Amino acid sequence: MRLNLYTFFVALLFLPTKALTQESPYTSPEKARADCTAAAASIDVASASSPGSPEKHPRLFWIIPTYSVSSSKLPSLLSPHDKFRLFVKNATDPYNLGYTAFMAGVAQASDVSAYGPGAAGYGKRLGAGLADETSAGFFTTFLFPSLLHQDPRYFRQGFGPFKSRLEHALIRPVATRKDSGGHAFNWSGLGSIAASSLSNAYYPEGDRGVSPTFARVGWGVPFSALDHVIDEFGPDLEKLFLRKR
Fold it and tell me: What pLDDT is attached to residue 215?
């Protein structure tokens, strides 16, 4: 189900290009660069004019939370307390809780051998899923970013060539922004190893050990990259969808 959701979003990424090609006149490369520069300048001015106002995080397609996504070019610095609040907001959001419960139900319907049948088996699987989400958020959004002085948010590029924006999203699991400015290797992402290691305390016997732990970490990297692709292009797809509606 999660893979189908990602496939839906990735497939839609190519719709805006086709639509603009059919509806808009040809724009020279020089004019495109000038438009991008003007857009960046307007965003900077807007951010600088109200530095104290909190950034809004509208839900993508009215459902998906975007607390960890920033479109500001002059983002405010997150203190450790702010990072903890960000972790709590994500962990307690109804969408994230509902998605975890739904996926636990899908997994339970396809295989009952690990946790047992019936409501008891589903309850155990749901508890494991919620523990996974909570520990991953705690380590990668609060603890490691606070200790290493890195920013756990994803910063949308928001404009420019498709290739540049796609590369910007795909590199995010590897490179992140420092609290002091600039970029660095995403050491905070290693919190996923801590979360996966912790899951050995409550996973079934067959899913414990070094190999399953690092397999879970490895599978998490491409899904994290796809998450950021949705963070980057989701608002554009939403505008296209609403315009067509």
Answer: 94
